[in-house]
């Protein structure tokens, strides 16, 4: 009787391990799919950023060609800029 009980416990343990392995495989598959989706989103965002950079460069060039001088760095003061007094 003891041996029969061991076989049942072993079979149950084996089924449990198989179910756990199957669950882990499914999770890995799901995570890989998520990873691929994230990569695609990052590629799309990278392309969008390149487009934005090109557009800003075009705008800066157009402003400079019009004779205006622009600075892309903020003034270096310790005090915040304030509007001129209108009184």
Described by strand count, sense and barrel closure, the largest sheet is: none
Q: What general form does the structure show?
A: elongated
Going by helix content, strand content and strand pairing, the class is mainly alpha
What helical percentage do the residues reach?
A: over 70%
Give Rg in angstroms: 32 Å
Task: Supply the number of helical segments.
Answer: 1
Instruction: Tell me the number of strands.
Output: 0
> What distance separates the N and C termini?
104 Å
Taking all residues together, what is the mean pLDDT? Answer: 82
Give start-end ranges of low-pLDDT stretches. none
Order of helices and strands: H
- The fraction of residues assigned to DSSP E strands is under 5%
